[in-house]
Amino acid sequence: MARPREFDEEMVLEAMVQCFWSRGFEATSVRDLIEKTGLTSASLYNAFGDKRALYRKALDHYVERSIADRIRRFEELPPREAIAAFFAEILERSFGDPQHRGCMLMNAALEAAPHDPDFQSIVAGALGRIEAFFHDCVKAGQADGVITRSLSAEDLARYLLGVLAGVRVMARVRPERALLEGAVGTALTLLEQSADEAVEQ
């Protein structure tokens, strides 16, 4: 009969997330993970596998606890408000991070995904979920007349995803409020219905 694990898996996963998020995959050593989690290398490997498996587990955990959770919380809001709230939380997280770590998903997209098909698939899947969230919000907002119909929901969703990626990357090197809020503000303004569209309704 297998012995029960003698540690809190949720806490260990969160510790791994923090470690990989701060240092990235390549720069994170097994010793770093041991120090952060408080487990031995044998316990880590027995529970989760090798370093690559540890990173994948941490990335999956980050996606579920950060990105998927944010989508769940905001998808019930009115469409334009949901998009604005999504970006507002991203900005506050960026400004409130003294380490300027950006987004673990975007970091993975730049560091690990180009060289590893499995990580590429994870990143692409998570970005697809965000794009789908934006698309659903835009589509609903266009139907309600609160978001412009001058561009398709598909194009606007892709544009918003691009703005999000840019903001998250810029938050690592130029975490300036005016810069990041300006980028987001312009994107939100683009969503506004024009006077001509309002007259047409």
Q: Which whole number gives the mean pLDDT? A: 91
What series of H and E elements makes up the topology?
A: HHHHHHHHHH
Secondary structure tally: strands: 0
> What fraction, in percent, of the residue positions are helical?
over 70%
Decide which structural class fits the backbone: mainly alpha
The value of Rg in angstroms is 20 Å
Report the principal-axis shape.
elongated
Number of helical regions: 10
What portion of the residues fall into strands of 2 or more residues?
under 5%
The low-confidence runs, each spanning 5 or more residues with pLDDT under 50, are none
* First-residue to last-residue Cα separation: 68 Å
Largest sheet geometry: none
Please summarize what this structure is.
This protein has 201 residues and is mainly α.
Secondary structure: elements and pairs:
Elements: H1 9-27, H2 30-37, H3 41-48, H4 51-74, H5 79-95, H6 104-111, H7 117-144, H8 153-173, H9 177-190, H10 195-200
Explain what the structure shows.
This protein is an all-alpha fold and 201 residues long. It has 10 helices and no strands. It has helices spanning 9-27, 30-37, 41-48, 51-74, 79-95, 104-111, 117-144, 153-173, 177-190, 195-200. Helix 5 (79-95) runs parallel beside helix 8 (153-173).
Top keywords for this entry?
single chain, 201 residues, mainly alpha, 76% helix, elongated
